UniProtKB/TrEMBL annotation:
Protein name: O-acetylhomoserine sulfhydrylase
Necessary cofactors: pyridoxal 5'-phosphate
Entry's family note: Belongs to the trans-sulfuration enzymes family.
Modified residues (N6-(pyridoxal phosphate)lysine): K211
CDD domains from the UniProt entry: CGS_like
Gene3D superfamilies hit by this protein: Aspartate Aminotransferase, domain 1, Type I PLP-dependent aspartate aminotransferase-like (Major domain)
Keywords: Pyridoxal phosphate, Transferase
A cellular-component GO term for this protein: cytoplasm
One of the record's GO molecular function terms: O-acetylhomoserine aminocarboxypropyltransferase activity
Keyword Methyltransferase attached: no
PANTHER family: HOMOCYSTEINE/CYSTEINE SYNTHASE, HOMOCYSTEINE_CYSTEINE SYNTHASE
Coiled-coil ranges (or none): none
NCBIfam families according to UniProt: OAH_OAS_sulfhy
């Protein structure tokens, strides 16, 4: 292969993929198009765009000239065939589930997930009869044991929120492929810089772009990425992807858009019908944030390693859940899938239980006590009373988010300052 035909490196694509100088003005930065609608050349053009017979912009809920470059960039970084930018990571998961599943269907989900995902799954099970079957992801064979004729998908996280453990994506993907089930991976904590799930057999990837992709903690956004590999054609289990859409002239997405039919289904149903479109301003901010993703993730991982090692040796700390530590049971998987580091979100348990955890959070000065993760600044939260509060105490304990546990998201500050703040907060007695 000549140098001219070699794929661009990740860092280059993080800066340039999906964008080009604006043809109207020559602007090199992607312009911010703050417009609801777009003027059509005539009624035929309007009808053709709405019917998906012609590409083009019609209304910013479905797509926008600022949002589209973000979609192309995320798809490029993940190695997917198409992407849909959406209002939030929570909206991304909702649209994925609603596009794939109907009332009475079941899907398998890792038993330890982001608290918001667990809350949504529980609500959909109760109100819409879309039932999650929770599986211990530490042993991939558990997924195969749980599959029934009602099972239509498998959902996992690449790096688990909040424990920081890395999941054996490839082994679970082989099980999914054997049973012709799409494997869906929440890649928020890893980002495509650390782990690219499609390389291990995943079919759909999604993100909360509010976290590491944007990195600045200023806007909310999400993304759905189609891997383009799952064989949806003729599969009656997934009618929105494999069967005709009467309101689009009986268009079949696997025929019209064979490279990324799931992404198109997510756009038509998820954005046009359900409506959680991404603001062009938020798209602009996330697109800009991604330009520094490789630099930031290296620093995030390096800082997290230093902080986790410090906490592991502190007398007030009972345990640290960070796979980068020597002797951690998840270390081998972390090194295999994420050799650059297992991200920068992890938990630790205070020896004084919940009173110690609350005291610690109250006395932090440099760390911000808030519920986000993946920002340039370092953050801390008490999952048992916030992000995972909907879980029963016994399930919190099993998930590693008991009342003594604190979640940290390590930012880009100097580690000396971070450790000094942790030290004084851990030493506080009131």
């Amino acid at each position: 292969m000549s140098d001219q035909n070699k794929p661009l490196a990740f860092a280059t694509r993080a800066v340039q993929a999906g964008t080009a100088p604006d043809p109207a003005t020559g602007a090199r930065a992607t312009p911010l198009f703050l417009t609801n609608g777009f003027v059509f050349d005539g009624p035929d053009m309007a009808a053709d765009i709405f019917a998906m017979r012609q590409t083009g912009f019609s209304y910013s809920r479905g797509s926008n000239p600022t949002t589209a470059p973000l979609e192309r960039r995320i798809a490029s970084l993940e190695g997917g065939t198409g992407a849909v930018a959406i209002g939030s990571g929570q909206a991304a998961l909702l649209v994925i589930l609603m596009t794939l599943l109907e009332s009475g269907d079941e899907y398998l989900a890792a038993s330890i997930l982001f608290g918001g995902s667990l809350g949504l799954m529980g609500r959909l099970a109760k109100r819409n009869d879309v039932k999650p079957i929770f599986v211990d992801a530490d042993r991939p064979e558990n997924f195969e044991r749980a599959i029934t004729p009602k099972t239509k998908a498998i959902i996992i996280e690449s790096i688990v929120n909040p424990s920081g453990e890395v999941v054996d994506i490839e082994s679970i993907a082989k099980i999914a492929q054997k049973h012709k089930l799409p494997l869906i991976v929440d890649n928020t904590l890893a980002t495509p810089f650390l782990i690219r799930p499609f390389e291990y057999g995943a079919d759909i990837v999604f993100h909360s772009a509010s976290k590491f992709l944007g990195g600045h903690g200023q806007v909310i956004g999400g993304a759905i990425v189609d891997g383009g590999r799952f064989d949806w054609k003729g599969d009656s289990r997934f009618p929105m992807i494999s069967e005709p859409w009467p309101d689009y002239g009986n268009m079949v997405l696997t025929e019209k858009f064979p490279a990324s039919p799931f992404a198109v289904a997510s756009r038509l149903y998820g954005l046009r019908d359900l409506g959680p479109g991404l603001s062009p301003f938020n798209a602009f901010m996330i697109l800009t944030g991604i330009e520094t993703l490789p630099l930031r993730m290296k620093r995030h991982c390096a800082n997290a390693h230093v902080v986790a090692n410090y906490l592991a040796s502190h007398p007030a700390v009972a345990s640290v859940s960070y796979p980068g530590l020597e002797g951690h049971p998840n270390r081998a998987l972390a090194l295999r899938y994420s050799p650059l580091g297992p991200g920068s979100v992890f938990t630790f348990a205070h020896k004084d239980g919940e009173p110690g955890a609350r005291r610690f959070l109250k006395n932090l000065k440099l760390f911000s006590h808030l519920a986000n993760i993946g920002e340039t600044r370092s953050l801390a939260i008490h999952p048992a009373t916030t992000t995972h509060k909907s879980m029963r105490p016994e399930l919190q304990a099993k998930a590693g988010v008991g009342p003594e546990v604190i979640r940290l998201s390590i930012g880009l500050e100097d580690t000396k300052d971070l450790i000094a703040d942790l030290e004084q907060a851990l030493a506080a007695t009131a």
